[in-house]
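Sanity check

After download, print the first record. It should look like this:
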Amino acid sequence: MIYVALLRGINVSGKHLIKMEELRSLFIGLGYTDVQTYIQSGNVVFKGSELPQMEHVSQIQAAIKARFGYDIPTLVLSAADLKRIHAANPYLRQSGINPKTLYITILSAAPDPEVIAGIQFPDYGTDSFVIQDFAVYLHCPQGAAETKLTNSFWERKLKRQATTRNLNTIRYLADLVTALTD
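Expected structure tokens:
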């Protein structure tokens, strides 16, 4: 089965440095095959046994801790989930939106509807979002560096682990998993 691992906070501002070749080697050492990384921010596509995704998460996190000494928040998605998240982006159906201002926050699980309903969302200027299942689709016209809709915000409000990628990264990862299935 094809999976995508999203590691949060590696190679950012000189912290939690992991070379991609070493990361690929770690995944291969765990028994994964066809391991591919994309950019330096911890995006890994791989083939692995059909296990619950949390088992993959536990194995990957334990191996990173053992080899590099880092506790790295990690999410694992199936290829089908990643492609579905990419295709379901509501902002892609709106005209006049610059794709470079689109981001997707992936959550460890869908938030409870009561939690979503109970959140009071103040005005965030030009930023907007849509929550669907375990993805938060973001439109940040001023860029990710200027938004208040950060991973920490979503983790605090939705009570779920979160990691964010820009649209181009999600698109590229979707293309990688598609190529592996062909």
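If your output differs, re-run the checksum step. Summary of this record's structure: Residues 2-79 form a domain with the Alpha-Beta Plaits fold (CATH 3.30.70.1280).
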